[in-house]
Each structure stands twice: as C-alpha cells, then as structure tokens.
Predict the 3D structure of the following.
Amino acid sequence: MSVTTLRRLSPHSSAVTSTWHSSVVALPAERRAATPFHTREWAAAWQAVRTEQVRSRHHLFLQDGPSQHRMSFYQVSNSPLWHAMEDDAGVTRPTFEADVLYGPSVYGEYGGLPGATVPVLAEAVDRGRALARDIGTEALVIANIPPAERTLWRQARTPDAEVVLYWAHRARVGASVDEFIANCPSASTGREFRSQHRRGNEAGLTLKITRGPELLPYVPEFAAQSVRAGDGHSPALYGTDMLAPLTRVPGAVGLLAEHSDGSLAGGFFCFRYGSALYLWTAAIDDARNGDLPIYSWLMYESVKFAVDTGASVLDAGRCDYAYKARLGMLPVALTSAVYLTRPNPHLVSRLGALHTGLNQHVLRAWNKA
C-alpha cells in the first residue's frame, strides 16, 4: 500500500494523501454518498461483475484534512456499454485497441467525485494515470462527469480528450401525476401519455414493486428481456452477475409491469435515493407485447411512484432521447475525461470521432421529438 502527498496544486495549505486498496470493504466508513452510483455497495457489486470484462479492481482512498473520498478504478478489456455507444455513434472501428482503466465504470449513470476539491481531483487523476501506465492500459477514463464538476476536473488536470457518451434526463415531479403532465411541452403530449397508460391498464397490466433483495427472483428474466430488447446479436449489456449484486445498493427497487397471468411484461431497475428516483435501466418483452406501450406505461407508473414516495426529481436515465424530450425532460450532458498513458494522436482522433458521432445521434433524436 503506497501513499503520496500532493502540495503544489491548490492555493490551500492542506495536503492530499491517498492509499490504494484491493477491496472496497477495506476502506473507512464514508458519509452518505451523493448518488447510488457513488455508494460502497455499488462499488462492491463490481467485485464480481463479468458482463463488463474486468481484469483488475483498485480502490483509491483520498483524504484532504477532514474530507474523505473514495474512487474505484477498473481495468476493463471489454465494456459492452462503451461498444453500444460506438454503435450509436456509427464509428467504423473500436476506439481502444487495448485495456482501459475506468474510474469508475461507465455503467454508473453519474461518476466523478461530488464535493471534492481540485487538489483531490488532481490526486485522483495522477494516481489513476500512474496505475494505468503500470498495468499497461491505453488510457484512464474518468467516466460520466456531470456539468457541475466538469470545470473542476479540467482545472485539476487537462484531459487529452473528452467524450459525452450520453445525456441523463431529469424532471421535477411535482405533487401529482397531473402536475407532471401539466408541465409537458404540449397538451397533445400529455394526452398521449395518459392514453398509453390507459391502454396498458385496459390490457391488464399491473405494477409490482420489489425492493432490494425482493427483486432477485426477477433478475434472470429481466436480464433475458434486456437482451431480447436489443438486436439479438450484440453482446448483452446487463447480466445477472451485474444486476443481482446491485439489488443491495441502497434504494434499489424494481418497478415491474406484469400481465394478468403474472408473467413479466417489462420493468425498470431503479434506485429511490435521496430526493430522486433514478430509472437506471429498462427491460421490455417486445416479442410478446407487440404494440402495447409497456415503456410509456412504466414511465407513468414511475412518476406516480416518485410522487408517492416523496421524490422531488425523476431522473429518467440515458438514451430514448426523442421520447424523453417530448416529455420535456432536461437533458444533462455527462462527460468522460480521457487521460492517455502515452502520446497517441490516432486514439485522440478516434475519441473525437466518437464524441462527434454521439452528438449527431442525439441531435437526430431531438429533431424527431
């Protein structure tokens, strides 16, 4: 276990110390994390993940006076979610040619280090990039930085490239579903939202709410439906190895649409955490449901669940840009900062093409909204 001290990057007098740990459970207790994606339980789930091919795991504990922070780093040889973004961007070749060190995984909707100072962020980059060099990866990727933190990371260490892999979507919930619908950009959108929910009800759909470990029996079918919802040929984005341990993350909840016979029509894997309901990922049985609007029915039920549980914000997650824009949700760009382990202009060019392609992909969706 090594310790480094950083004294020169901040006008403040405090020094930043950091230590590496092989397991997140070895780290000191932490204050309440800013999002479910920053919790100890989220990091612990990645200790056994295989869907994202993780070759090694490293957890950095950082201290700046009384302030403590933790950041997990994963050496990844194949990330299905990153490849899905390459498909969306329409790039002609994979971005990376070797392993990458992600801090943390791109599967967490939000990354970064909320509340950390610039010296702490600089230490995280320095230690992360040194580790990336030591284990022979092409780059360190600080994943999914929200807008409020992006400038701080740039001040800490200027990245070699930046890629907005996706946009999150957020909306104020209000005191009722009616209030949420009243805030839609147009009356016709609100009417359609109600109509699709009514169609689901008339077809016999009912909502089953499963919290934490109660979700475990549904994980295999949820994972299978997430595969069938794709093109059937691409690697699965979510496996049972990923979903099962995530049921232990604080606030984990499944909002599941069931047919009248009790079979699963689809569902949202969510986190009711802090003031928000996070809709992290969805699985829909398109083969059986035909034109039944399962997704929209679940979105309506999600708004209702958020209202009933006192959430003030609905965070509807990534992708489905046209649909979420029609509902009037605020898009939030999430930037991944890339720090190379050695000069590589071809890699920088590929990262630029990925960023441009994803931006065009999103603009096309918004133009259809």
